[in-house]
Amino acid sequence: MRFELTPRTTVSPVARALAPVAAFITAFLIAGVVIWLMGRSPIAAFDVYVLQPLSDPWSLQELLVKATPLMLIAIGLSYCFRANLWNIGAEGQYVIGAVFGGWLALRTHGTDAGAWVLPAMLLLGIIGGALYGLIPAFLKIRFGVNEILTSLMLVYVAQLFLDYLSRGPWRDPKGFNFPQSVTFDPAATLPSIMEGSRIHWGAIFALVAIVITAIILGRTLFGYRLKLTGDAPRAARFAGFSSKATTMAVFAISGGLAGLAGIVEVSGQIGQLQPSISPGYGFTAITVAYLGRLNPVGILIAALVVALTFIGGESAQILLKLPLDLTQAFQGILLLCVLAADALVSYRIRFVTRGGGK
Question: C-alpha distances in angstroms, 54 versus 46, 58, 120, 187?
Fold first, then answer.
């Protein structure tokens, strides 16, 4: 006996809308079993992971801070995924954006530069991420190289490049040999929205990106072009849409937003360049994009939910002595549950015997 997936003739909109919720609940149940097997209370873990962060004012601020890069990267990825193109290297584009923008911060360090530095840093971050995103796009349309492999491998190139800079030419000579650059000047630091708040202007950039993307995808010819290219590539060609131009455009947009996330995080939170500037935002944003159904509003909600796991994971490491890697494992389980929920909504499981009967 084996089972097959057969397409459903009709898909309930309610089932499709509730699929991410069911996936999230299932992922929590699986994680609860794992925590129980590790000798901890699943109820206590749920309290630490979810309830405590949502009841603490500082954690609520931190929630939005950690959701900001996830929103920016996931919004960019939604352009690629809607066109059925697979940018798996947003983590590398995030790093290169931080490097490009951070270069200007280090170049103007101690020079009493004016207010132009920060906008220029943000622009350089976008340009750096976009250029790095265009590499797998160019290799795909010119040589037919699989964009999944190239974008993923370029992540490690970017990370090693940042590691080299932090330990070598950009290392702070007064930093006691730690692999980090000098601290950015105030002119190169992204300010908080309100005094005393940890929420910086990057959160506003993310919300603006969500609104603009909602308009582009829902009300413009470019949004229709992406949908048609992803759903029916032959029809897109007959309509006169160039697949090569679409590939270059969506990878540039995706990389640019990932680069913006990188320089926003470095200038708004970290304040300097160092080998590790991300807990895996670029990879986690893939889960955010699919958990949000590639919809801008859904991505906003999904980013907040996934950011909650980062905060809860840090608290669980301290209070319950659970490894921080468990958070990454949970995010992977969540992605698998989302994909499985989508499959079960769109397909029906049919059991088939060796003779061909049901």
Answer: 12, 9, 36, 33
Strand partners, 51: none
Taking CB atoms within 8 Å and a gap of at least 24, the contacts of 122-126 are: 122/260, 122/263, 122/264, 122/267, 124/100, 124/263, 125/97, 125/98, 125/100, 125/101, 125/259, 125/260, 125/262, 125/263, 125/264, 126/97, 126/256, 126/257, 126/259, 126/260, 126/263
Q: Which residues contact 344 (CB under 8 A, 6 or more apart)?
A: 19
Q: Name the 3-class secondary structure at 347.
A: strand
Closest CA to 35 of 319, 278, 338: 319
pLDDT in tens, 264-310: 999 998 999 999 999 889 999 998 998 898 999 999 999 999 999 88
What's the pLDDT tens digit per position in 63-119? 999 999 999 999 999 999 999 999 999 999 999 999 999 999 999 998 888 889 999
Question: Is the Cβ–Cβ distance between 49 and 351 less than 8 Å?
Answer: no
- Residue 357: is its pLDDT beyond 60? no
Cβ burial of 85 (10 Å; 0-12, 13-18, 19+) is buried
In terms of Cβ atoms closer than 10 Å to its own Cβ (0-12, 13-18, 19+), residue 142 is: exposed
| CA 14-15-18 angle, 5° bins | 85
From CA 278, how far away is CA 52, in angstroms rounded?
A: 24
